[in-house]
Design brief:
The complex is a heterotrimer of chains A (775), B (90) and C (211). By secondary structure, chain A is mainly α. Chain A is 69% helix and 2% strand. Chain A has a domain of 141 residues: Up-down Bundle (Four Helix Bundle (Hemerythrin (Met), subunit A)), CATH 1.20.120.80. Chain A is built from 22 helices and 3 strands. Chain A has a two-stranded antiparallel ribbon with strand order 2-3. In chain A, α3 crosses α8, α6 packs antiparallel against α16 and α8 packs antiparallel against α11. Chain B is mainly α. Chain B has one domain. The longest helix of chain B is centred in the middle third of the chain and has 23 residues. The radius of gyration of chain B is 17 Å and the shape is flat. The termini of chain B are far apart. With 211 residues, chain C is α+β, with helices and mostly antiparallel strands. Chain C folds into 2 domains: 66 residues; 109 residues, Cupredoxins -  blue copper proteins (Immunoglobulin-like), CATH 2.60.40.420. In chain C, the strands form 2 sheets. Chain C has a 5-stranded mixed sheet with strand order 4-3-2-6-9, with no helix packed on it. Chain C has a 5-stranded mixed sheet with strand order 5-11-10-7-8, covered by helices on one side. The chains are: A mainly alpha (775), B mainly alpha (90), C alpha+beta (211). β1 of chain A pairs parallel with β1 of chain C.
């Protein structure tokens, strides 16, 4: 099925089946721009409404839907994907790789992202979509917004988190394992460095969002009471959402910082000031970003000690930012600054971000936040950081790498025009919102004295919008009529400029390597006995389509879900059975994972995200127990017998998996098959016993909605059971292949990787058992 | 991997589970019972990770991913639960 | 006379705005100055350390310059936090002699319960100059009770009672608005706070008949 040569770019087949990172980058780019237009038009619609107080042409729910989807799309479907469009295209080039580590998974990430966005868009046409704010506060979302569209939008987010997880694993493995020889981790170009830190933050932040969505969906669809009960409710959601949400702010920003750093070096013709300090500062920010979320909750009445701790971390995180941006500015000294379009956007973005950063200190001051919370001051602040620092910074990147992507130069004149319009529009739009700080967020009705500021903002919004039209025209026109760019039009020093524009399939002629700090190309030595690499596969698209259909069915017709699951099973088999060859370069820098192969690294990266997923679900359980005045004593609600038997069963199954691996290593086919079959039987017994336990509970009238003890039990063991079930499906596949003689002579790593997953699921149970049955 | 390592780890896991069940029935203060049981669970998890998932034989850098995940979960658990301690709802 | 809660916020706000504007103007101007001075002009030579194509990255050294700048900004930020905590000590400690009102937010309005048992919907009256302590909760979704003119806000969360307090010296009528998206009526969830002269309030309050 997989094919080796890419069809021409005019062929639809190429765009549906490509796994080439450059193509996938273009797909991400076009799609994120589509969502940018949707989210931008929504913003213009409500800005028009806000030109005068009151609701003149929008209904209250239309207004709420517009602001919600605007925020949701911009943050999750526009800025981050735009960053990943650039990352897809540029990161392999910057590190001298032929492609990402897992090209098919990369295509899968893209299609999952696209279909996630399509679900969000579809939800608009199901009476009403999410109208609860992008922060989805509780219990409004769980109990007071009973619309189908809200479910669909939420499932779209779930699909996005799947996409993010897959691409996170891919980028982590790529950046650690596919670097050119001599390219030490500390010598990475700043853009790649920032992408690495971004995906590491994503790795631990997005599972929290997924956990939140799972709990929320379960409340809405199954009737659990995580967020509808006061013991969980508003504050539990706040914790989970912002534990994801605050790192997300830096996830949105970091790639833009990388763009700024790379363009500063190129256009100021000087090395980056304090490069190592900037990198250390970014690492510190990435770590602290997981410890600041509480500053979104200063007024919720959480414990004063915790509030003060969050003030300290919030202020602490501003200091590395000082170091980063001051270093950026110091880079400009004694420079020869070429004010080309990308540089203009970088400088503009830095200036805007500085304003966003300073106003962030205001919000970190808890006493000011008591009053500023929920006002336009906050709106202005996060647009200055995320739209100004993030989006405008990425536009610099788009212009910077456009010649590399297309082989053509854009019009400098139009680029400057867009820059002027952007700066005027942006500041006209958002600066008045600082001045209108007394206005509540997300309300159409406001006092008359604020009309002038709002009208200036609305006009600014249209100017800002128009600036994008100039960009679209520029990029499309130059695609055909731009001057040929050549390899290195900016005279830059990083590796992506040392090949043709656009680069050929495989990116470089020869293998780039740094010897004594200087770039050389090692002749490709016959592609290492080479099977041809594969570049086309239909299965990423099919898998994503199947997931999309299955999820859409959940909110429309369950038959559709059934069809979707059938298609999913078919696609998984197709994906697994396809012969898809992607080689890892033979020589390269792999520290600190020289002795860890790429699949192993990928599995451990994935399992780390699962740790956070279950960690948050279990934390939610501990949380609601702490919050509840009463809780049934251990042994009274859930039968310890069932739990204990299942514990022994699962522990034994871990042993049999380990023994299956040992047998395959020692070449015993009978042992491999036997122990895999034993594992399958034990896993099936576990689920049967679980079913028996659930049925007993249901028989006694204990259901999903019978209070928090029942809700948490069913949800936690249910998600765990789903993991066991997924493991059993994989076991069936492994067993069938083992019966045909696989894994004995070679390929026993597959059993090792399966073991990682299975033992992990076992570990989760090792905690569930005492937490729910004994303690 | 030597067989006896798998088998003795398994034996330890079973023993620790039995120990959990025994401690559960003891007339000790609740805190002592709860903490010992959770401690045993943590010990079991570490054994599985080190010897069944072979982290004991891998470079430390590989464990770093999981440790960062565990660290962020602990931060989440600690700060979110602390934030409502002394508060009872309902 | 104890400071009003409005003044506490306003003085803090003034400090932040002044320093914020100052720092912003200095930093952005310095950047603009560097850009203008060092822009590429005909005859301006390439810097000697220009990164050459294919070279691994180097860096400009200057830890001292950076250290000084960061210490400077750290000093500013830390002193801002210290004055914040000073203000917080007042804001988080309602005076013991406060007049106490219970507030229940609902979709979409406000209910007020006075100490004498009187309740009203939509309008709250309080005396001027007296500390007023609010016990705020919600009967349905997450709201936020905000009286922005009086620099006052409390989250209204179902199942949970949050406390806020204020002391104001200006009489008048102020909007009570919701500052957390709470559904279709969020934008029009507006109540009235009437701050009265103490004598006027006293005569109104004592005239109330409580059922």
């Amino acid at each position: 099925m997989g094919s080796h040569h890419l069809p021409p770019t005019s062929s639809l087949r190429r765009w549906l089946m490509t796994t080439d990172h450059k193509d996938v980058g273009i797909l991400y780019l076009v799609t994120s721009i589509y969502f940018l237009v949707v989210a931008g038009v929504l913003a213009l619609v409500f800005r028009l409404q806000l030109a005068e107080p009151g609701l003149n042409f929008l209904s209250p729910t239309a207004f709420n839907q517009a602001i919600t989807i605007h925020g949701l799309l911009m943050i999750l479907f526009v800025i981050s994907p735009l960053a990943f469009a650039l990352a897809n295209y540029v990161v392999p080039l910057q590190i001298g790789a032929r492609d990402l580590a897992f090209p098919r998974l990369n295509a899968l990430s893209y299609w999952l992202f696209l279909f996630g966005g399509v679900l969000v868009i579809i939800s608009f046409f199901q009476e009403r979509t999410l109208d609860v704010g992008w922060t989805m506060y509780q219990p409004l979302t769980s109990a007071f917004s009973p619309y189908v569209g809200v479910n669909t939008g939420g499932l779209g987010l779930a699909l996005l988190t799947a996409s993010v997880t897959v691409s996170t694993v891919n980028f982590v493995v790529t950046i650690f394992r596919s670097r050119a020889k001599g390219l030490r981790l500390t010598a990475l170009p700043m853009f790649t460095m920032s992408v690495l830190l971004t995906v590491l933050m994503m790795l631990y932040a997005f599972p929290a969002l997924l956990a939140g969505i799972i709990l929320l969906a379960s409340d809405r669809l199954l009737g659990t009471v995580y967020f509808t009960s006061p013991e969980g409710g508003a504050i539990l959601w706040d914790h989970i959402f912002w534990f994801f949400g605050h790192p997300e702010v830096y996830i949105v920003l970091f790639p833009a910082l990388g763009v700024m750093a790379d363009t500063l070096v190129t256009f100021s013709r000087r090395p980056l000031f304090g490069r190592r300090i900037i990198i250390s500062a970014m690492v510190i920010v990435a770590l602290i970003s997981f410890l600041v979320w509480g500053h979104h909750m200063f007024l919720t009445g959480i414990h004063p000690d915790v509030r003060r701790a969050f003030v300290v971390t919030t202020i602490a995180i501003s200091l590395p930012f000082d170091a980063i941006f001051l270093s950026f500015i110091y880079t400009l000294s004694k420079a020869k600054i070429e004010l080309r379009t990308p540089m203009l956007f970088t400088l503009g973005s830095i200036a805007i971000f500085i304003i966003g950063g300073i106003t962030g200190v205001f919000l970190g001051s808890i006493a000011l936040d008591y009053v500023l919370r929920g006002t336009y001051f906050v709106v202005a602040h996060f647009h200055y950081t995320m739209a100004g620092g993030g989006l405008v910074g990425l536009i610099a990147g788009l212009y910077y790498w456009y010649p590399k992507m297309t082989g053509r130069m854009f019009s400098e004149k139009l680029g400057r025009l867009q820059f002027i319009l952007t700066m005027i529009g942006f500041n006209m739009l958002y600066f008045p919102l600082f001045l209108a700080w007394e206005m509540p967020r997300r309300v159409p009705l406001y006092v008359e004295s604020l009309i002038p500021l709002n009208q200036v903002a609305t006009i600014g919004g249209f100017v800002f919008g128009a600036s994008f039209l100039v960009m679209f025209w520029n990029l499309l026109y130059s695609l055909k009529y731009g001057e040929p760019a050549g390899e290195n039009p900016w005279g830059a020093h990083t590796l992506e400029w040392m090949t043709k524009s656009p680069p050929p399939s495989g990116n470089f002629e020869g293998t780039p390597a740094f010897v004594d700090g200087r770039l050389t190309f090692v002749a490709a030595n016959g592609a290492a006995g080479g099977e041809m690499e594969t570049h086309l596969s239909i299965w990423p698209l099919m898998l994503s389509l199947a997931s999309f259909v299955a999820l859409l069915g959940l909110t429309t017709n369950i038959l559709v879900t059934t069809a979707g699951l059938g298609l999913l099973a078919f696609s998984v088999l197709g994906f697994a059975g396809e012969r898809f060859i992607s080689r890892e370069g033979e020589l390269g820098e792999r520290w600190p994972f020289d002795r860890v192969d790429r699949m192993k690294l990928a599995w451990w990266t994935f399992i780390s995200s699962e740790i956070v997923l279950f960690g948050v679900i279990l934390s939610a359980y501990v949380y609601v127990r702490t919050a509840s005045a009463t809780w049934p004593a251990p042994g009274t609600l859930f039968d310890i017998g069932h739990g204990a038997v299942n514990t022994f069963v699962l522990l034994t199954s871990s042993l049999t998996v380990a023994l299956a691996l040992a047998s395959s290593r020692s070449g015993s086919r009978a042992g491999t098959v036997g122990f895999l079959a034993a594992t399958l039987a034990l896993g099936a017994f576990f689920l049967f016993n679980k079913y028996d336990e659930w049925a007993e509970l249901f028989g006694h009238g204990v259901t999903f909605s019978s209070g928090l003890p029942a809700s948490t039990f069913f949800l936690t063991t249910g998600i765990h059971g789903a993991h066991v079930f997924a493991g059993l499906l994989a076991l069936v596949y492994l067993l069938v292949r083992a019966l045909r003689g696989a894994y004995v002579r070679d390929g026993h790593e597959t059993l090792e990787y399966f073991g990682y997953y299975w033992h992990f699921v076992d570990i989760v149970w090792v905690f569930i058992f005492p937490l729910f049955y004994l303690v | 991997m030597r067989l006896w390592v798998y088998l003795s780890v398994f034996a330890a896991l079973v023993l620790m589970t039995v120990l959990e069940l025994i401690i559960f029935g003891q007339p000790l203060p609740r805190v002592v019972v709860d903490l010992s049981i959770i401690g045993l669970a943590g010990g079991k998890a570490v054994l599985i990770a080190l010897f069944f998932q072979h982290l004991a034989y891998e470079p430390r850098s590989l464990s770093a991913f999981a440790l960062l995940g565990i660290g962020s979960v602990i931060a989440f658990l600690f700060l979110s639960v602390y934030s409502i301690i002394e508060l009872r709802f309902g | 006379m104890a400071a009003s809660t409005v003044e506490i916020f306003n003085s803090l706000w003034t400090v932040f705005v002044t320093l914020g504007v100052l720092v912003g103007v200095v930093v952005i101007s310095y950047m603009a100055y560097l850009v203008v001075r060092n822009r590429a002009r005909p005859g301006r030579p390439e810097p000697e350390d220009v990164p050459k194509p294919g070279e691994l990255p180097r860096e400009q050294r200057g830890a001292k310059k950076l250290l000084i700048s960061v210490i400077l900004s750290a000093t500013i930020v830390i002193s801002l936090i210290l004055i914040t905590f000073t203000a917080l000590d007042v804001l988080d400690r309602p005076p013991a002699d406060a007049f106490e009102v219970k507030v229940v937010a609902f979709q979409w309005g406000w209910k007020f319960y006075y100490p004498n048992g009187y309740e009203s919907t939509g309008e709250l009256r309080i005396p001027r100059g007296v500390p007023v302590k609010f016990y705020v909760t919600s009967q349905d979704v997450f709201h936020n009770m905000g009286i922005i003119d009086l620099r006052f806000k409390v989250d209204a969360i179902p199942g949970k009672t949050n406390i806020g307090w204020m002391r104001v010296y200006t009489t008048g009528v102020y909007d009570i608005r919701c500052f957390e998206l709470c559904g279709d009526g969020h934008g029009v969830m507006i109540g009235r706070l009437v701050v009265m002269e103490p004598e006027e309030f006293e005569s109104w309050y004592s005239s109330l008949t409580v059922s």
